Amino acid sequence: MLYLLHGIGDIETGWTKLGAADVVLDNLFADKKLVPMIVVMPNGRAAKDVTQRTPWDKQGPAFEAFEKDLLKDLIPFVEKNYSVKSDRESRALAGLSMGGGQSLNFGLTNLDTFAWVGGFASAPNTKPIGDLVKSPSETTKKLKLLWVSCGDADFILDVSKRVHASLDELKVPHEWHLSEGKHEWPVWKVDLYYFAPKLFRETR
Ligand code: FER
Q: Which residues cross the membrane (predicted)?
């Protein structure tokens, strides 16, 4: 199960309509590069009146509040209604920008729920790593993959750089990918292309 989250300008259709996630993943699967997986692409705003057209500085709380929806509502719903694996090592959480910040914020503080976490071009909603990694040894032990990536010309590259440097300082293993590009879909599609094949495999 991969829970894949969108950014501030998108809704739940962003990853397929603009990111062609279905096509990228189907092609990887056809090439035998992907462990079969089910991808859930929810709307990541938990607020009644906040949409992708709401000014950016007013959207933060809706993205933050989604943690409770994801953990207490969406994942239980999926696992109750569909025949899916429901152990932590069968759950991945990744996203782009605001969704990248959500993935790092929620993933790193819920290690009993997720073993695979990815932040693509994570936004300033990303909390300081000191808040997310209380025990570097536990994080290291429990995470199968921690992926941090960004385009080299992204206007919020400093967020990912800070995450990468902080994780290095704490000696928490992670994959750091600096790719070519701005804050744009071509970068995130490539992120998905390289991130997804790593999921749900033996790592050590
Ligand atoms: C910001 C810069 C970028 C910000 C949010 C973003 C809320 C998010 C971008 C995206 O999701 O694509 O200052 O503040």
A: none
> In terms of C-beta density within 10 A (0-12 exposed, 13-18 middle, 19 or more buried), how is residue 139 classed?
buried
Closest ligand 1 atom to residue 99 Cα is: 11
| Per-chain mean pLDDT for the chain | 97
**DSSP annotation of 57:** G
**CATH class, range 2-198:** alpha beta
Give the model's pLDDT for residue 204: 56
User: Could you tell me if 182 and 166 are in contact, meaning their C-beta atoms sit under 8 angstroms apart?
Assistant: no
Chain centroid to CA 178: how far? 16
| Number of residues written out for the chain | 204
The amino acid that residue 140 corresponds to is: T
Q: What gap in Å lies between CA 29 and CA 33, rounded to an integer?
A: 6
Q: Encoding tokens for residue 190?
A: 């490539």
| Cα 123 to middle of ligand 1, angstroms | 5
In angstroms, rounded to a whole number, what is the distance separating the alpha carbons of residues 25 and 14? 15
CA–centroid distance, 8 to ligand 1, in Å, is 6
Task: Give the chain's residues under pLDDT 50.
Answer: none
Domain ranges of the chain: 2-198
